[in-house]
Amino acid sequence: MQAAAADPVIEFRDVSYRVGGNQVLCGLNLHVKRGETLVLLGRSGSGKTTTLKLVNRLVSQSAGIILVNGMPNDQTDVIRLRRGVGYVIQEAGLFPHFAVARNIGLVPKLEGWAQGRIEARVRELLQLVGLDAEFGQRYPHQLSGGQRQRVGVARALAADPEILLMDEPFAALDPLTRDELQREFLLLQQRLHKTVLFVTHDLREALRLGSRIALMEAGKLVTVLTPQEFVKSGDAWASAYVRAFGEGLESAANRGTS
Fold first, then answer.
1. Contact 101, 107 (CB under 8 A)
2. Does domain 34-56+76-256 bear CATH number 3.40.50.10740?
3. How far is C-alpha 214 from the geometric centre of its chain's CA atoms?
4. SS3 183
5. Phi and psi dihedrals of 23, rounded to 5?
6. Which pTM was predicted?
7. How far apart are CA 23 and CA 37, in angstroms?
8. Which residues contact 171 (CB under 8 A, 6 or more apart)?
């Protein structure tokens, strides 16, 4: 059964994840609304990336339930689940021996799309992420870091998934390129209205890109706030995070919603 428009697209219910004797996540309750960008914010080891990987079953929870469009994700065929979820990671994770066009068109090809339709989709997506059509013939090693990340986003969007999982996609880029891609992401999201779960340890990025921010610490969810609420919050953990990142954060929050 499809989720209604008002229902969460992704929902974690009392989710825990343990590796050996290490409790990575503990009792996570969280939902992602349709069309929003929910940012998972926290320091290294806080459980952000594990939370992301649980959605498309790159890892499986030790306890609890994860619902994707109202269905438990562990009761869904894992191949169908993953092909319906776009996934963007640092350094794009492109296949080095595939040209850009083949990288972008991989999932549509696996889905059985006709070649003409794949080629049209590749051209459309290259334009969408700000690359000329001739980039389709290049290989990943011939691209800059920013260009590879654009291709990574295009590949994630290729089969038009409702959900995007983004694991620090801009973290390895220089500050100017990172700023440019953040701006482009905001424009894309305004146009496409995808449901995005976005991992970062950078507060300014969270304030700029997030509809809401879920602050995590030591495998637990601390609080979920809008960017404006986060900056003004009296919550001890949120306040500490704000202080750690210095001044100018309120203006960053305002830019993120402009």
1. no
2. no
3. 13
4. helix
5. -90, 100
6. 0.88
7. 27
8. 90, 178, 200, 201, 202
